[in-house]
Design a protein that fits this description.
alpha/beta, two-stranded parallel ribbon, 9 helices, globular, Short-chain dehydrogenase/reductase, NAD(P)-bd_dom_sf, Sc_DH/Rdtase_CS, SDR_oxidoreductase, oxidoreductase
């Protein structure tokens, strides 16, 4: 029997979150999982032996809701070893097309929800001097496509936050890994999960066409959620997990091209960068 670690996973009723929860339960881990819809989560996961699974209805825009769910998970299992900030959604549209509400809602779920989870689980991990936090970003946080500025901003924020968090808690025996997936065969591209700006400006027609093409790729993505779930478990069981992992050959390729171009631009403008140094 594998180590009986307790995992807390957000956004677990579908996609990568659901694949991970099912894989964990099949490998005898104990799991607390969250969703906006408790019945949907229970149906998706199915029957589980008592004492191994705790489904939780959570509003990720509410720090109180998150904190209460983490407390319930700790009371139920007696420990929280791994937290996976998986919940999130994509939002497409040019910046001037998106309303303040559309922008804030995306940040509330994709960024602030993750921060609230981290703030809630860290006291338990610090007390134990052990834990692993996995934050799901996206390749869009490094190499975004046109039309996804706000979504890219949220996922870039997750990468920056995770990098510093990893440094802050490493001495306490806590690992942090930010995962930047490419395209996976989940509901992410579907109309159910993808939000597009209600307001449209004709000048951005090429951008709108790109978003339509992205949505049309639903079900054709390269990544396999089952294999991603296996990778997440390997990360936690690893003696030396990475701080950042690009998941999928498409994500790896896009990141490589982006960083190579960034380095090329840095070197081409090195003299300008140095010109502001005091003598």
């Amino acid at each position: 029997m594998l180590d009986q670690k307790v995992w807390y996973v957000t956004g677990a009723s579908k996609g990568l979150g659901l694949a991970l929860v099912k894989k964990l339960l099949s490998n005898n881990y104990r799991v607390a999982a969250t969703s906006r819809n408790l019945d949907e989560l229970k149906r998706a996961v199915g029957q589980v032996r008592e004492g191994r699974f705790l489904p939780l209805q959570v509003d990720l825009k509410s720090s109180e809701s998150i904190d209460q769910s983490v407390k319930l998970a700790y009371e139920y299992f007696g420990q929280i070893d791994v937290a996976v900030n998986n919940a999130g959604y994509g939002i497409g549209g040019a910046i001037e097309e998106l309303s303040q509400q559309e922008i804030m809602s995306n940040f509330e779920v994709n960024v602030f929800g993750s921060i609230y989870v981290i703030q809630s689980v860290l006291p338990y991990m610090r007390a134990k001097r052990y834990g692993h936090i996995i934050n799901i970003s996206s390749i869009a946080g490094v190499a975004p496509h046109t039309g996804w500025s706000i979504y890219a901003a949220t996922k870039s924020a997750i990468i920056g936050m995770s990098d510093v968090l990893a440094q802050d808690v490493r001495s306490m025996g806590i690992n942090v890994t930010v995962v930047a997936p490419g395209g996976f065969r989940t509901e992410f591209n579907s109309a159910e999960s993808l939000v597009v700006a209600d307001y449209k400006i004709a000048d951005y027609l090429p951008l709108h066409e790109g978003i339509k093409q992205f949505a049309a790729n639903h079900g054709k993505q390269l990544g396999d959620p089952e294999k991603a779930a296996e990778v997440f478990i390997e990360l936690v069981e690893s003696d030396n997990p990475p701080t950042c992992l690009f998941l999928g050959s498409d994500a790896y390729q896009r990141a490589t091209e982006k960083y190579n171009k960034l380095l090329e631009d840095m070197q081409a403008n090195k003299k300008i960068s140095e010109r502001t140094d005091s003598n």
